[in-house]
Specification:
Shape: elongated
Radius of gyration: 20 Å
Low-confidence stretches: none
Strand content: 5-15%
Structural class: mainly alpha
Largest sheet: 2 strands, antiparallel
Number of helices: 3
Helix content: 55-70%
Amino acid sequence: MAHDTENLAIFRGLLKFKSNVQKIWGVLIFLSIVTTIEVVLGIVKPQSLMGMFLGMKLLNWIFIILTIVKAYYIAWDFMHIRDEKSGFKGSIVLPLVILIPYLSWILLVEADYIFEVMRTGFVSWNF
């Protein structure tokens, strides 16, 4: 059975594999590297990334972006979204493109409210 070379490529065709097993290992290694970067940044918390950007620490933005990258590759390769028709891809990806920023916005607004309530002393920190 011949394999389609497009289905054995990741990173928009920059890295091609000879078999599905190699591709699975390649994506797994990539996801492991991204996760390792997240864990190391979470433990070390470099001072250079503690500056504020759009109301949130730069380190938190990096975590959000790396998580979205991991979610993309999990869905695209392991859940085989890449092999589906464009209409089906759109029905899966479009709600996420709308939903993720909306949920992030809700999270930021609620977190800012809680922070302001705790900072002004209306309610004391109990956690």
